[in-house]
């Protein structure tokens, strides 16, 4: 199984954010951490994805977990990354009569 893509939207003074990042570190998992208190573009991105301003927001292989819910995080880690839309569209655009 490929290494999961993990993004954590956090703030420095958030204890749940620290817990989430500590969890990933303890599992030896790499993650990208965006400090939304200093990065307005990432804060807007987080709100677009979730409709919320609460942190942490954790994205694992395209799946969103708001807050640090260990069970939800572990379930998301077990799932494969969903296929990209354009990869699925290739199958729809195939014309077997146009070879």
Care to describe what's here?
- The chain is α+β, with helices and mostly antiparallel strands.
- The chain has a single domain, classed as Glutaredoxin (3-Layer(aba) Sandwich), CATH 3.40.30.10.
- Helices cover 41% and strands 17% of the residues.
- The protein has 4 helices and 4 strands; from the N terminus they run βαβαββαα.
- The protein has helices at 15-26, 40-50, 70-78, 85-93, and strands at 6-10, 32-35, 57-60, 63-66.
- Strands 2-1-3-4 form a 4-stranded mixed β-sheet, with helices on both faces.
- A hairpin with a 2-residue loop joins β3 and β4 (63-66).
- The longest helix has 12 residues, at 15-26.
- The chain is globular and about 60 Å long.
Work out the radius of gyration. 17 Å
| Oligomeric state | single chain
Indicate the CATH topology.
Glutaredoxin
The percent of residues in helical segments reads 40-55%
> What's the main sheet like?
4 strands, mixed
Overall CATH architecture: 3-Layer(aba) Sandwich
Q: Can you count the helices?
A: 4
Choose one word for the global shape.
Answer: globular
Element layout with pairings:
Blueprint: E1 6-10, H1 15-26, E2 32-35, H2 40-50, E3 57-60, E4 63-66, H3 70-78, H4 85-93
Parallel strand pairs: 1-2
Antiparallel strand pairs: 1-3, 3-4
Quick synopsis:
With 99 residues, this protein is α+β, with helices and mostly antiparallel strands.
Q: What features would you highlight for this structure?
A:
single chain; alpha+beta; Glutaredoxin; 4 helices; globular
């Amino acid at each position: 199984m490929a290494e999961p893509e993990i993004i954590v939207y956090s703030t420095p003074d958030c204890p749940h954010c620290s817990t989430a990042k500590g969890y990933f570190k303890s599992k030896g998992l790499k993650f990208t951490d965006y400090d939304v208190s200093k990065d307005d573009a990432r804060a807007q991105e987080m709100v677009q994805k979730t409709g919320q301003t609460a942190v942490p927001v954790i994205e694992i292989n395209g799946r969103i977990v708001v807050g640090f819910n260990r069970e939800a995080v572990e379930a998301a880690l077990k799932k494969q990354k969903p296929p990209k839309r354009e990869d699925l569209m290739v199958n729809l655009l195939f014309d077997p009569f146009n070879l």
